[in-house]
TrEMBL record:
Residue ranges annotated for the Alcohol dehydrogenase iron-type/glycerol dehydrogenase GldA domain, each copy included: 9-175
Higher taxonomy: Bacteria, Bacillati, Bacillota, Bacilli, Bacillales
Domain called Fe-containing alcohol dehydrogenase-like C-terminal: residue spans: 186-384
Keywords, alphabetical: Oxidoreductase
Name of the featured protein: Iron-containing alcohol dehydrogenase
GO MF, any single term: methylglyoxal reductase (NADPH) (acetol producing) activity
Length: 385
């Protein structure tokens, strides 16, 4: 196991009716708040009205940044920074999915920064200060509610990058707020959560049994609950379990002491920077192909994955056969829940394949399980067409 320092300061407030704790938080964080939200799902569900009235009852002046796009845009983030500076905003509340939270994080670190907030995404600078940020999560997927990552798209340059920004001070997760997530977004969320685990599970670091079993438990729990939640979107326990898995998959628990990969995320970000496809959809397509491209680097890890997570029976089979059966099981699972399986499902052909491969590797080779050059990425994308 490698050395590590683990620190996660986000207060996780989980369960039915927990939104009521927002008032107490508002009183601690200041009287002028910017609420950040997306294209209107929180208005349709009634969550917007509930949130605003709780904030007003706590004595807050409430300002708004509506209309955050899925794959949030730098231009929207800049609008939020302007509002905060002009109005003297004390803290920010993101109400929505990962895109809303990521945009709110960018605003939070952009306000006290004199340069261009894009510097944090193009690796020119690291944030030194941030406005306090709370979140009310409405979609199980990114883990953004309990980490300091944020992914923003610069539409002018067609670049989508992740930056290290700020942890939310608190996050409120009520599974009932995810009941209205449409079927396709539920599927994308499931694929994103599983992909986060894959990125941290496929590692060459030896002797990491606890991290390995944590990862397998998350995958098994998602697999057990996925079809349940798709059959009945208002199944509280299934939604709750998937929601908690989403947080645990990317809150810093899995990568402690482990060398992690993240190449597939970089590849997907390059695809969605050009084609603006849903993140989880892109991952479901690319991940099985990444696995087929790299599994020979550590066949034992893939055979374990096949047996422990997918119940592949190894009797009478070579290690390689078992590993490949596990990868086929991932692909079959994504197909069974209705995830896209080929780039063609998004009308993506091979015309921009090379451009995407270059965009996925702007700072050099990516990944650690197998270091991938732009040629490797182009091959994985070709396998995904
Ligand atoms: O915009 P609204 O109207 O709110 O609708 C959203 C949006 O259309 C809708 N939605 C969300 N909650 C809902 C709901 N509709 C009905 N009922 C609800 N309760 O779902 C759509 C997608 O929302 P979005 O926030 O884009 O989805 P997600 O949470 O999957 O976030 C995706 C973004 O996060 C980034 C991705 O790259 C992408 O930009 N990621 C962020 C990470 C992080 N910060 O740690 C890590 C991830 O790997 C990922 O890269
Ligand atoms: Zn992701």
């Amino acid at each position: 196991m490698n050395n590590f320092v683990y620190h996660n300061p986000t207060e996780l407030i989980f369960g039915k009716g927990q939104l009521s704790l927002l008032q107490e938080k508002a009183k601690q964080l200041g009287s002028t708040v910017l609420i950040v939200y997306g294209g209107g799902s929180i208005k349709r569900s009634g969550l917007y009205d509930k949130t605003v009235s709780l904030l007003q009852d706590a004595g807050c002046r409430v300002l708004e940044l509506p209309g955050v796009e899925p794959n949030p845009r730098l231009s929207t983030v800049k609008k939020g920074i302007e509002i905060c500076r002009q109005e003297g905003v004390d803290w920010i509340l993101a109400v929505g999915g990962g895109s809303v939270i990521d945009a709110a994080k960018a605003v939070a670190v952009g306000v006290p920064y004199e340069g261009d907030v894009w510097d944090f995404y193009s690796r020119v600078a690291q944030p030194q200060a941030a406005l306090p940020l709370g979140t009310v999560l409405t979609l199980a997927a990114t883990g953004s509610e309990m980490n300091r990552g944020s992914v923003v798209t610069n539409w002018e340059t067609q670049e989508k990058h992740g930056g290290t920004t700020t942890f939310p001070t608190f996050s409120i997760l009520d599974p009932e707020n995810t009941f209205t997530v449409p079927r396709d977004q539920t599927i994308y969320g499931i694929s994103d959560i599983m992909s986060h685990v894959f990125e941290q599970y496929f590692s060459h670091t030896p002797e990491i049994p606890l991290q390995t079993r944590f990862a397998e438990s998350i995958l098994k729990t998602v697999i057990e609950n996925a079809e349940r939640v798709l059959e009945n979107p208002e199944d509280y326990d299934a939604r709750a379990n998937i929601l908690y898995c989403g947080t645990m998959a990317l809150n810093g628990t899995l990568p402690v002491g482990v060398e992690t990969d993240w190449a597939t995320h970089s590849i997907e970000h390059a695809v969605s920077a050009i084609y603006d496809i849903p993140h989880g959809g892109g991952l479901a397509i690319i991940f099985p192909n990444w696995m087929r491209y790299v599994y020979r680097e550590n066949v034992a890890r893939f055979t374990r994955f096949a047996v422990e997570v997918w119940n592949v029976d190894p009797t009478g089979k070579s290690d390689e056969e078992v590993a490949l059966e596990g990868i086929a099981a991932v692909e079959a699972f994504f197909a069974r829940i209705g995830a896209p399986t080929r780039l063609a499902d998004y009308q993506i052909g091979d015309d921009k394949l090379q451009v995407m491969a270059e965009k996925a590797t702007p700072f050099g080779p990516i990944g650690s399980f197998k270091k991938l050059t732009s040629e490797d990425v182009a091959e994985i994308l070709r396998m995904s067409l």
